[in-house]
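Hallway conversation turned thread

IA: we were arguing at lunch whether anyone had actually written out Wadjet protein JetD C-terminal domain-containing protein end to end. Turns out nobody had. So, for the record, here is the sequence (369 residues) and right after it the structure tokens. Reply here if something looks off.
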Amino acid sequence: MPELHERVYAWLCKKSKGSATGKLRCSGILDKLRTDVLNDPVALRKALIQLRGEQLIDYAAGQHGEPISGFLTVVRPDQEVPSHVEAWRAVLADSTLPERDKLALQAVGSAMEGFSSKNMAMLLDGLIRLRENQAQHFGEQVFSVSAMYLMGSSKLLSSLDWKALYSFGIEIARFLPRPVYVVVGGNVEAPTAVVLVENPVSFEAAVDSVAARDCLFVCTFGFGLSASTNDYGNQLAGAVEAGQARVLSRSAGGEVPTLRDILRHQRIQFWGDLDVAGMQIFCRLASKVPDMTLSALYEPMIEAIRHDASRHPYVSAVCKDGQGRMIVQTARSDVQELLCLCEHFAVDQEFVSADDIVRLAGKPLSCYG
């Protein structure tokens, strides 16, 4: 087994991988090392002191050697940079973009293998134009948008680092990843309420319940969609933003309404996961349908999120790594209330029972805490 200071250094390198400068917040770092490496604070302090002495890390130290500065800098091992990454960096350096934009687009370089410097310059120009014009294309197919702006390629936009695109200011999730199908189930002729549902499993449970006699439930589906990346909810929001989608009926009988007709209903609600991404999806929907409310089906989830046994953190094991760092800007008090509840923990909508669906479907959420 490697020496303790080597294990600590490997841990620090891994945690600082996402930082271009190698900086890590010092707050709670000893506690995290005790959890992940070794539950021995004295030995860990000695390991940090040794690494600092070897100039592998840098920080302001306290009386016992523990970091007391706001940040700790990890001096990572030198790695050979591929030629196409160097070429992309050179193209960025020669551009007139501000430094924050150049830094944001650094990660795009990993996809530039085989591109000439001239190709890269053309791609950069396309990304700049797309950022300027993106709002007029929200709700359109990502393949069409990509071909229109990025060198005639329908696949190029989707192959670029999405975090880099977001940092640069391109809202990649606002473009539809594939042709959109909306499936409806329940009362298609004269529903008392319309409920937009984020995930297909919960949609099926709702359509199979007695609540389907009164309510019309709406969801999206398609090949290649992944619940782990909020594809269903984002596609639903994209369809509403575009105001069009192919509508198919899950229920027998009745004329299938158009999406525009569905969105004109006087009582329209949203039911999704109680997490940050779910709230972001709702805000996108409500921006196009201002009268939309949150569904009372959130009530069991609000109760569940108060208990350790029925809530989960934002980690990769539950396919929500990174959600805890998402920021949702909204003036809506109902969303703000739920964002406070799900700041650190989440509850998936599949938690809601069949009995709760029957009891609460079609009613607006009125209790937030």
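OS: looked through it. Residues 83-174 form one domain.
IA: good, adding that to the notes. The mean pLDDT is 88.
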